[in-house]
Automatic annotation (TrEMBL):
It holds the Pfam family Peptidase_M3. Binds 1 zinc ion. It comes from Dimargaris cristalligena. It comes from the Eukaryota. This is Peptidase M3A/M3B catalytic domain-containing protein.
Amino acid sequence: MYEHCRLALDWDFTPRKIDSIIAAHHRTIEQLMDEIATVPLDEATFETVVAPLALAENDAPITPITAVEFLRHVSPDRALRSASDKVKRKWGSSRVSGRMPAEVIRRLDIVYETIDHAALEPEDRRILLALHKVVRSPNRDFPHPEATRLRDIRNRLNALETSFTRNVNEATMECLFTRKELFGVSRGFLANLESRMADDQTLRYVVNVNRPEGKLVMCNAQWEATRREVSLAKGRQCPENIAIMEETVSLRHEAAQLMGYSNHAEKRLEGTLAQNPERVNDFLTNLRDRLIPLGQVEIETLKSYKRMAREELGSDVISDDDTIYDWDPGFLINYTMASQAHGDYNTIKQYYPAESVIDSILYIFRTLLGIQFVENRNASTWHPDVRTMEVWDRETHAFLGHVYMDTQPRKNKFPHSACFTLRSGSRLPDGTYSTPACAVVLNLPSPRTHRPALLSPPEITVIFHEMGHAMHLICSQTKYARFHGYNVEDDFMEVPSLLMENWANQREILRQLSCHYETGETIPDHLIDMILASQEKFPGLTYLFKVTCDLFDQYIHTLPDGPVDIQQSWSRLKEDVSLVKDADYRSQVWPTASFVTFFGNYEAGSYGHLWAQAHSADIFCSRFRGRNILNPAVGLQFRYNILKPGGSSDGMDLLRDFLGRESKAGTLLDWIGLN
């Protein structure tokens, strides 16, 4: 039943092959639309109209369109990235429901109005509702000029997204520092940096602010001026993206109003757990008001850390200004914790070599979810560093899907962490099942000359998060691709991934993941104490920054008519809510230009991360924490109750089935320490 899709994807692409695949795909879609449009009106049924549309969204087994679109994020070949960009720019989403002609919509309407909804299978009923919702809007009978304008807006938005993403992926911002300016980072780290001779004949080390070395400098470099320069450089990337963002916001607002909505946020939030912008705003402002007193206490703590560091290092290294800036918290926390715990993150990282940690994390998922990972070393990939993992059910021996792991940074690669769908699972017309495939894209530290890549605790958390997304996709099994995996309500999508982050915060798991890269020893308890203490520090400021980003997202997508000033909107919220100051260079720094959540169906929905965290905290506290942290019985319940249904049921119904009660969103406040 599964054999035909056990094959890994074919990554032997050329620009001409991509053009051929896309052209064939769209000829097929056009032919399908022509066939449905000619179905006699009295013969419009689920089988003649809805089923063909739903099946057309299922991915091709070997060369799915989603994989072609994915290449723009990771391919080392510029020509392939350009060809992939062209696909996204020209066609946008590969879903057919966005391109239904009027006669197809007419027949879909007939089916929707005449069919006995109660007689349909649950997932068939859900696909009918989903397809009908796409073509429905409060102002659905568009006059021809408005329909044409909407199409033009969608095409322009596709082009803007492509340009924005390309600018972020290909951004290269470097800083040059002397050995003195990098004092505090290890000699081994310096040995692996590129070096250049500057005009003044001094040797300078090259730090790429988008790669792991940028974060390492921010947490370890003692000279405040060095960290400030890295922070400013990171904020000065992609200035052209500000104009792209402002045009995008304006076009989204115009499109929403053409469709009868007040603003883009109202349109995007329809059908989510939150339902409308008012509920999201209430959620975020309430959280902000509860967090600010805690954040103010934490700011005062950081100021005391800064004064202590100044006394020890000197005012030429740490400025006399007690203000906490963006470049301060990471270093001050690391420096102070190291002083108090007789260790530091460089020592801790020696117990977490990347390859060993990843294999151990896979074993944890194996234990919890009843699955098995088998590496396929002969599979085709887009880069030699990519690992291909086959995933199998340990009990039934059924093949479940593929996980591609692209963990090393490189030039022109997506600079953040994400899980990308490459092929959604779905039932094929012949009754067999097309198994899913996904890519876990990370930018972990690279191996050095004399030692493997070593991971910090936050980097371990990121792996758990993205693998949580991957397991949602791999363990899901739905009839239609539209509902597969994390194709769920936008504010439910992060529940599994945020849940899995908690495993990186447990003493037993931290010990299990550890293996000193030289001695093989497990990490000692006093260093685990340091990790756990640092993770419990400063939750107020951590969550206030998230609230800042989410309020900004809602603000720009609920504005009334008129242009939006991205810079001014961000600067006002950043200073008022996050409590951590930017430099006084607002006209020279534009951090929002690298916000990848501005596109990718996250717009007006970034609040969903915090919304989902409320539910993930409830799941962990009530079902996993303590003795159930590696309980396979509970893990299998989670797999079958939450992961397997994907989006074929409402998220709140899935939570109720798994918890045996309604989810308690207030657990998040307990988790942060606000209750």
